[in-house]
Design goal:
Strand content: 5-15%
Bound molecules: zinc ion
Largest sheet: 4 strands, mixed
Radius of gyration: 19 Å
Shape: globular
Helix content: 55-70%
Distance between the termini: 42 Å
Mean pLDDT: 92
Structural class: alpha+beta
Number of domains: 2
């Protein structure tokens, strides 16, 4: 477990965070030490990118008066939490969107730097490869998080837009979006991990919907 402070926020990096980044970076197909370097570069780029994402949430929470904000990077990516935080719907939307937007903005900044660097001939090599990974992770992570599936950022923002009185509608949209996104990514990219998360989220949203529809429970 790694712990440090960044902009005053305590940051904890759980071992599962490295494991998921290694898996996404292709660690399972490494055959020799030469193939190990791209995986390590992917892990560093992914770690920095996800940290920036969570910083986006944390800095916006601080802007709205939250104290005791902590960042945890875990097997699902990361989370920024504040004890007893209460947001208005507008603040909830901004806090949710700040993470993916800051992350995507940083990805686009590095992309712009690479395009300029390409023209003056200083790109390529290890830094170039890590920059490519950073751009890829930042844009993909930000876009996936903006899918309106609760509890992803897009789902949290949707909850802020529709409000607590329309929680059933939020959960229904979440369920459908999870199924559509999971199936779409499975058929287009042949990826297994993300669709698995989407199936999990669809089931959790379905269970939450049943709880909301019968708050006293079946017993
Ligand atoms: Zn987020």
């Amino acid at each position: 477990m790694i712990r440090f402070r960044l902009f005053g926020f305590p940051v904890t990096v759980e071992p599962w965070h490295w494991a998921i980044l290694a898996f996404l970076g292709g660690a399972l197909s490494v055959r020799d030490s030469e193939q190990l370097l791209p995986v390590l570069l992917f892990m560093v780029a992914g770690f920095v990118s996800v940290l920036i994402h969570e910083l986006g949430h944390a800095l916006t929470m601080r802007l709205f008066g939250c104290r005791h904000i902590a960042i945890v990077l875990n097997g699902f990516g990361g989370i920024a939490v504040s004890k007893g935080a209460r947001f208005t719907r507008g603040q909830q939307i901004l806090v949710s969107l700040a993470g993916p937007f800051l992350q995507a903005a940083c990805g686009l900044l590095v992309l712009a730097a690479l395009i300029i660097g390409d023209e003056v001939g200083w790109t390529g090599g290890t830094v170039g490869l890590m920059s490519d990974f950073f751009i890829y992770v930042s844009l993909a992570w930000a876009i996936l998080n903006l899918i309106p599936v609760y509890p992803l950022d897009g789902g949290q923002a949707l909850n802020g837009v529709l409000g607590p009185l329309r929680i059933e509608l939020t959960l229904r949209i979440s369920m459908i979006a999870a199924i559509v996104a999971g199936a779409g990514i499975f058929f287009v990219f042949k990826s297994i991990l993300f669709p698995m998360f989407m199936v999990f989220f669809a089931i959790e949203n379905y269970k939450a919907l049943k709880r909301v529809q019968s708050p006293s429970g079946p017993w």
